[in-house]
Amino acid sequence: MTSVGLNQLSYDREDLELTLGAGQRHPLVREVNGLLSQIPYLNYASPADDRLYSENVRRSVSRFQAAEGLMPTGLIDLRTLLALATPTRARLDLSRVQFTVAGDAINARSGPSTNYPVLYRVYRGDTLEVIGRIGVGAPRNIWLQVCCLDGGVAWIRSDLGAISGELGLVRIVPSEELPPEPTAATAAQPLLANLPATTPDGAPIVYLTFDDGPNGDYTQRTLELLRQYNARATFFVVGRQVRDGVDLVRSAAADGHYIANHTWDHVYLDQISREEFYDQVQRTRNELVNAAGDLFTLDGDVFYVRPPYGAISAENRQWLAEMGLTSVLWDIDPQDWRRPGVDAIAGHVLNHAFPGAIVLLHDGGGERSQTVAALEIILSELSARGYRFLNILGQ
User: pLDDT digit string (tens) for 222-280?
Assistant: First the structure.
């Protein structure tokens, strides 16, 4: 059997051709942890349980892939593993100042105020390089330009974490270099910017979301479980599947779940023209409104879009904003579409849940019996912890 050398060790090619993902345990995950910790801009620390493919591993792999120009799947395949061993973007000593996230999740924005849209979220313990700043006085008034998650820069308010190093050494970004303030026509905000983490009486909230349906019995069983636990969720629906699943879409809407847009046929939005983009999104919206618009009592329309594969560019966000729409991504991804086992799916969500987390699951796109079984465990265990389950509107 042929072997491949990696990190001064030798592995069977058969092992390296495995695809590793969330919730799995494998000796190679230890090597992945070690390699991630050697990428300076990731600021990654290898955990004590270094054989488990945790959510932190998934996020860091996805960020590395984006920085390397690879598809940010969050999965380890041979190409990603070899890239980790020989990274091309050795961003060393970007600055002498770092910012470490203090809360469970905070928003990284495209500009230095809450008027700018959220690009992505960063999580407790994430450490970012500070490469610019604006503002004076109290930390709440100072915004930091940080690098380099998801392959680019973003802005974070300085009071949302801890700063190490001398902030005065960091360059003040001149006003002419700042992105233009969003106008009324382009100011649509990703909803996750305002999602509450707790109910008014203090109960923690988790936001369950389901992609790729409707999908016959799997969607039906998902709805039944949600009813059993008095849970509300959000369904990101593929447009071309609506006609054969009208009753399921209507049932979900009637139960108080939010019905959202997952494009017409699950394309990479960042790889199509503006005209195709508009067609993918608007055609799905029209199909959903025609099928169940009379039941859309939450906000009367379909204002939220989840880009398939999480693939969305700054230009895509601009196009959505001009359409009055908002993209919604996720915080926790058990990669249930891989069917890694009921315990792996449920365990990944339960081990990483936090108040305000958006969880990605699938009711469609294939055989989903593992997800349905895992959902029952997730609902039962998180209910026992006091969690409430709301849709993306916080209802």
Answer: 999 999 999 999 999 999 999 999 999 999 999 999 999 999 999 999 999 999 999 99
Q: Are strands 143-147 and 304-305 parallel, antiparallel or unpaired?
A: unpaired
CA distance 316 to 116: 15
Residue with tokens 């265990």: 381
Write the DSSP symbol of residue 117: P
Write out the H or E segment, with its range, that includes residue 207: strand 205-213
Question: For residue 146, which of 177, 188, 179, 111 has the smallest C-alpha distance?
Answer: 111
d(CA 164, CA 99) in angstroms, rounded, equals 7
**Integer Cα distance of 324 and 19 in angstroms:** 38
C-beta separation of 377 from 342 below 8 A: yes
Spatial distance between the Cα atoms of 56 and 336, rounded to a whole number of angstroms: 16
- Which two three-digit tokens encode residue 78? 């041979």
> Which residues are identified as catalytic?
211, 362
Of 108, 32, 43, the residue nearest 314 (C-alpha): 108
